[in-house]
Amino acid sequence: MKFSVSLTRFLYRSLSIRQGREQSATNLAPRQARKRSRIERVALYCTRNRPTNKRDVRDVFGVRFDSTTDETVLTAVDRPAKPVETARVPCQIDIGLLSEDEQKRLQPLLWLELESLFDKHCVSPVRQKPFKPTRKEKGNGVFGVSLYTLIHRDQQVFAGKDMAVTMVPLVLQVILSELAVRGAREEGILRVSGNKQKIDALYNEIEHNFYRKPEKIDPLIKEAGVHDLGSLLKRWLRDLSQPLLTNDLVHLFFQTNVLPPQDQCKALTVLCQLLPHENRNTLRALLHFFRRVVEQQHLNRMSQQNVATIIAPSFFPPTFVHPPDKDDMGAQTQMAAQCCQLTNVLLGMADSLWFVPQRLIEQGKIVIAM
Length: 370
Prior knowledge:
Layout lengths: L1 H25 L1 H21 L5 H8 L30 E3 L5 H21 L26 H11 L5 H4 L3 H13 L13 H14 L7 H7 L2 H13 L11 H6 L5 H14 L2 H19 L1 H4 L3 H12 L13 H20 L6 E3 H12 L1
Helix pairs in contact: 4-12, 4-17, 7-10, 7-13, 8-10, 15-16
């Protein structure tokens, strides 16, 4: 009986010891983690505040020190991590909120910013002559004319609308608003072509009656198919008398393809802010709509790359942006790919292209004061 009791006690004791060892092994990592966190706090305190006696810290927390120096030397495991510094975003202002006078002061500073970015990477900027309106723009059509002419006509015909604020052609606003409501979720929007006969009929009706009989345009747009409207939008962009990015800036836009990503984004931002009011606001409205299409890609199957591939020829028309040898198919293919990549970057930066650093605005005020 005594033997059995002793044996039972022995077994219980052995079992408890074994469980204790297992528990201690299990809790070793958390204990070390807790110890390291305490060490880190004290070491961080010592480095940020007055010097602390090495022996006191070592004795209390068991930190190892280098005997040849007076500075604390922690192991790679015990070394406290550097505090993460949150990036400070400089104060920026939407260029659309600046007055006409402030934007004029800003122009030379933006050109200096652009030239410094190009000089940094040894790129010689190529500027073309500004666009001059042609006699063809004296008609009443909305296709094949400049944005400036369309804005001027809108202000004359639709005096009740505040066109001076948006500076976006009314015909484009009508098409984009209808596509945003009915076409953004349509599969293949902008990629799938519409019916040619319906597109031509829609084109002729809008071209001849948009200003003469505007009451007929609204029901016509609402009854049109979304793919017909998408094709009409691309045709309107393609028929502009000068590129949306303007004749004198479109080559500079293209030249940013050789810049590294960070400087490329800066240069594209500066170039968008150098655009005339009507071009900048029209580009902004288009990018906003294209972003809306991309956000619905799970329904319309139009990714950002897909949209960029379709829109790139409208942003960088081949008649304006082309290799020196137009018969070189390899150079044309490479240039088309570069234009798609730049369009893709513009789509990704659609919300940040329009903000001007506060420092440039302040510098503009100083220059005028001097």
